[in-house]
Amino acid sequence: MTDTLVELERGADGVAVITLCNGKVNSLSKAVLTQLLVIAEQLTIDPPGAVIVTGSERIFAAGADISEFAGPDEARQIGALFVAALNAVAAIPRMVIAAVAGPALGGGCELALACDMRLAADSARFGQPEILLGIIPGGGGTQRLPRLVGPARAKDMILTGRQVAAEEALSIGLVDEVVPRDSLMTRARELAAELARGPVLAQALAKAAIDDGLQVTLAEGLALEQAAFVEVFGTDDARLGVASFLEHGPGKATFTGR
Fold first, then answer.
1. Phi, then psi, of 83 in degrees rounded to 5
2. What is the pLDDT of residue 71?
3. Known catalytic residue: 64?
4. Which of 110, 127, 139, 140 does the annotation list as catalytic?
5. Catalytic residue among 16, 40, 61, 64
6. In 10 A of CB 67, how many CB atoms?
C-alpha cells in the first residue's frame, strides 16, 4: 500500500488544500512529486474555487531528497519529474496560494514559486541552497525566481545559497504578505474563500493570459488577452456581473462560477 505523502482536502467553501506530509522536513522525493503531480492534474480536470498549498506548521518543504541523486541519469529523471509536477501546479486554472511556515528551501522554494501567490508566516525562510552542494536548482528556480524578483536578486540568492527571512522576502517581492505563524492558515483560507466566491472562469482566463503572455512578445500577449476578453463574455458570470453593475453598481454581483 502506497503511503499518503501529499493530502488533498476539498472544503465546502470551494477551497482545496494540498498538504505535504513527508516526515519532519517534507523532502520532495520522487514519491512526493508523483503524488503532487496526480493531485494537480485532478484539480485541473475538476477545479475547485481556489487552492492552497502548504506543509506542516514548522516547515513548508526542505527541498529534494538528496539521497535519490546519484549522477546525471538520476538528475535527468528527477529534474523532469520536478518540472512536470511544478508545472502541473502552476497550470491549475484557479488561483494557487502557497501558505509557507518555516523553511521553503531548494525544491520547496521552487514549489512556492510555482504558485500564484505566496503568504508567509513570520517564521518562514526562503532559499535556493543547491550551490552549497556544488549543484544548481533543477525545479525551475533559475527561471521562476528571476521573473519574480529580478535577475540580480535571483543571482544573489542562487549563486550564494543564502536564505532570506520573511520580511526580506516581502521587501523583494518574493512573498505577497507576511502574517504571524498562528494566523497563516486562517489568512490563507480567508483569501482563498474570497477568490472561490468570485467569477472563477474569468479568473482562470486572466491567469492564463498573464502566464502565457509572459512567454511571448507584447503583441502576441495582447492578442492572447483579446481572445480571452471575447471568451469571457460568453460566461454566465459576465452576464450577471454586467447586469448587476448596471442596476446596483460595482461589487454587488453574486457569481455562480459558470
1. -60, -45
2. 86
3. yes
4. 110
5. 64
6. 8
Measured in Å, how far apart are the chain's first and last C-alpha atoms? 39
**Cell 490563507, residue?**
188
For residue 130, indicate whether it is catalytic. Answer: yes
Annotated catalytic, 41? Answer: no
Catalytic residue among 104, 106, 130, 139: 130
Q: Does 57 qualify as catalytic in the annotation?
A: no
pLDDT for 1: 54
| Domain annotation for the chain: domains and CATH numbers | 6-196 (3.90.226.10), 200-248 (1.10.12)
**pLDDT, block means (10 residues), the chain with 258 residues:** 88 96 90 96 97 94 83 89 97 98 96 98 96 94 97 97 97 97 96 96 97 96 96 92 83 83
- The pLDDT, as a whole number, for residue 254 is 86
- Nearest one of 228, 5, 203 to 97, comparing CA atoms: 203
User: How deeply is 246 buried, as exposed, middle or buried, from its count of CB atoms within 10 A (0-12, 13-18, 19+)?
Assistant: exposed
Query: Of 9, 76, 79, 72, whose CA–CA distance to 42 is shortest?
Result: 9
